[in-house]
Amino acid sequence: MKLLRYIIFITFTLLLTSVSNKALATSTISFQQVPKKITKPVDTSKKDTSKVKMKKGVDGLDDKIEHFANDSTHVDKKNGVVHFYGKARVIYDTFELDAEYIRYDSKNNIIFARGITNDKGKYYGRPIFKMGADGTGIADSISYNTKTRKGNVDGIFKEQEGGFFTGGRTKVQPDNEFHVSNTTYSTCNLPEPHFGLHITKGIATENHIITGPVYFEFERIPMPLGLPFAFFPKPNKKSSGFILPTPGEDATKGFSLTNGGYYVILSDYWDAKVTGNIFTNGSYDLNLATNYLKRYKYGGNLNLAYSSTRNGLEGTPEYKPQKNFHIGWTHSQNANARPGTTFSASVNAGTSSYFSTTAANATYDINQIAQNTLSSSIAYGKVFGDGLFNLTAALSHSQETQAKTISLTLPQVSLNMSTLTPFYGKNSVGEQKWYQKLTVGYSLQASNTVNTKEDMLFDKDGLKRFKNGFQHNIPISLPFNLFKYLNFNTSVNYNERWYFQTVKNFYLENPTGSPTVVTDTVNGFKRAGEYTLSTGMSTKLYFRKRFANMGKIKGFSHVMTPNFSFSYKPDFSSSNFGYYKNQELYKNDLRPGKRELIATDGSQIIRDAKGKPLKYSIFEQGIYGGPSAGKQASIGFSLDNNVELKVASAADTTGTGEKKIPIIQGLTFSSSYNFVADSMKLAPISFGGRSQFTDKLGFNFSGSLSPYAVKNVGTVVNAGTANQSVIPSYREVDSYRLPRITSITFSTDFSFNPEALKSRNKNVDAVKNQTPTAGRTQEETDRLQAISRDPNAFVDFNIPWNIALSYSFNYSNPLGRKETRTISNTLNFNGDFNLTPKWKIQFNSGYDFKAKNISYTSFAIYRDLHCWDLSASWIPFGAYQSYSIDIKVKASVLQDLKLSKRKGYYTKY
Predict the structure, then answer these.
(1) Using N-to-C axis directions, what is the helix angle for 778-787 and 754-769, rounded to 10°?
(2) Which helix (H) or strand (E) holds 861?
(3) What is the rounded CA–CA span in Å between residue 441 and residue 419?
(4) For residue range 385-406, what is the model confidence (pLDDT) as tens digits?
């Protein structure tokens, strides 16, 4: 009984409000079924009348009338009546008519049309008519007076702004009014609609519909839900107005009115919608959404949201209101609006708990509720100097919702110069000399950023936490070839950083433990420059083999690309550069400015196990870091491999065709050897690659190998200090042993039906590119674009099934010991299938082998009910356990005619 009362209340409310809301702001759509093509009445205005040789002003007819009949024409001159048989057509001024039979009474100026019943009792050739700029319609019969411009239409079937008027009688008035009786209005496109609003009598004008008694019909059965009279606005364009709320119920928050508010047209380019949700336990939400569009220039939308949420019972700690807000802004600029200049914005910011606390503003969108990060970017770009320079400036933000940390960059500036060839001018002719290949570039980065907690961002010391700096980079390179096949490249890279703050570290003695480090900020401009010299060589080696007796395998090819490089960099931690300071031990004196060295003979310097002084960089907190420590003179080497099989192609009927099957793609091994390092001169060996055997199956893998074995792990105490650290002691691997695996990753994706992914991407692209003239109103297109960010929102009944698997494996063990080993592997699978042509089931789940538990799991069921659709989603277990059931009309013009039942994940009972 509770559900029945809920249905009666919803339906009675929607009878009054559904059509009035169609011109207001758009609402969120939970999913969209790919619709079947709707057969509409033929637009007779598009027919080529020249091909049917239409007659004009003959047989005693009015000169304004054009007519044609495929079968025959009979003229009754005595009564002034002309009969047209067989696919007849008549055009009078702006009135166009096609029917199997048409009669024109010239004395009374009446055109009459109807269909014909054949021998089997089938009624065919119904009149198809068009009046002025209105769309076409179909009727059982039609009578129209060409002088008074009045007419009667029986059994009409006509589309009107996304809806259909069916049955009954309609009288056409000369002042563009339509008087209707016993007509059904529905968004169902069938001649016998599944549901509708039955209008016993009414008047339809250009801007509104006034009716007498109106009631709801389902499968032509009258429902005990109706109104004695009704007024439906019928605007031809957007207009301001109230948005009536939708009643609901939540087990935690109580009864509710959601998505009620006001929609306002601010100008031809700008609108706004203010909506809110209110709950009986004291919770409420406020939302402001505005859209703007300047055709061929720019467009975007802005969304501001604020919520006050109470959970639990009054008097409990949970009942204290939780305040949250969210800001969303997107802006895009037409590429041709200002050539050389770009501006874009994508803002998604707010309090971390907004989506989880408000259930994504009562939409229960699991993608928003479960998201762990929020990010934003506002960017400006400018190309100047005849394309030589490219300037970009951006404001960015990122949040981690679980840890409630936030990172702001205000701003990030980048200036890049196109690569120059100073010795090769515009007027140079002939082949380039070796020195003319010299190139010079330049880039500048500047940034001002902060990383902090949400609640600390706007306190009194918030601005002091910002870090800033500049970085200049000048690359110089000279490529050349030797012996035709060897490609060399010599380069010098100079990097300089500018800072306005550096640091000074004080290591305070602690007799019972490790020294305490105190860091002071030193104001003042400092620069840090470093450079690297390098040269490299690469070539390609090809190995091909053909087979004569290997069946379908015709051959294979192996392409190896070796690369060698040598680089040199001085030790920038040397004291003559001034970038690094010795770690020195001070007395622990808490009085400001009273820190003193323990000794002045140098024994206060902290040293490592080999007696070398430990140093720290004065730029260690700089946004771009500082010059690296340690001298480097190393050689780097890598080897890239690609292996392909050539097999006979089954698609080639000649028997000589071949196709390539990639076996190994991008299998690369790389490492380096530092000649001046004190120990462990050979760097770890990294590898990675991929294999794509078919369109459905592919693998990706990577990892690292250590050329050293761990002999023991000990505790080392630095001489003269109590600084303790656990370090590994390495020895080289014996020559007969392979390098030790320290990490390896493996992942694969497999789709049993790749056509499903293609269809989904095609639907997303179609929505993005759709215009109002493509069969949908602008409001419908806006709503579909709002969900185009979630490809899973599309339900395509044309794809009967799809199953996709993904697997990932990660292994890490840097020291080769059991306590340092970590292994994780997860399996995810998702898919959908049609139980029948109208039923579809979707699922998403997985298994975490480390946690030994099933990962996030959800099920969804969709039912295509022609003009209605039914959807049910269920998360059976886990943190977001919930369910929702929706049954609603597909067409947006009756978007509020729906029934929803939800259980939120935060509901306590």
Answers:
(1) 140
(2) strand 858-865
(3) 5
(4) 888 999 999 998 888 877 788 8
